[in-house]
Amino acid sequence: MRVLYTHKTMLHLQDNDQLRTFGAGLCLTTVGIALLIITNVLNTKEHDAMAGNMDRQLQDAYKKYQDNQPLLDEAEDCSSSSRREPMIIKSTHLV
To answer: What are the two backbone dihedrals, phi and then psi, of residue 3, each rounded to the nearest 5 degrees?
Structure first.
């Protein structure tokens, strides 16, 4: 959008103002692209941190489940051959 505005303005200005307007437009465009890159990097880091936190929470919950499993096996009357292993879910599957 800024590039189009700068180009349109450049055509209607005098020679000494054209270069200044082009430079200002180029600076604004460069700053806009830099801000987009910075925002993308920050969002990626935040997403990775959240996914890592979810993985740790799922691993902790699964470990607690495994630690309590022998107590549950003693209380159940069904045979151990009919029991299936629980499915491991990773947070990357949830995103």
So the answer is: -65, -45
Q: Could you report the per-residue pLDDT of 16-61, keeping only the tens digit for each?
A: 777 788 888 899 999 999 999 999 999 999 999 999 999 999 998 8
Question: Which DSSP string do the residues of 4-71 spell out, in sequence order?
Answer: HHHHHHHHHS-HHHHHHHHHHHHHHHHHHHHHHHHHHHHHHHHHHHHHHHHHHHHHHHHHHHHHHHHH
> Which of 82, 86, 83, 81 minimizes the C-alpha distance to 62?
86
The domain spans of the chain are 2-94
Amino acid at 64: K
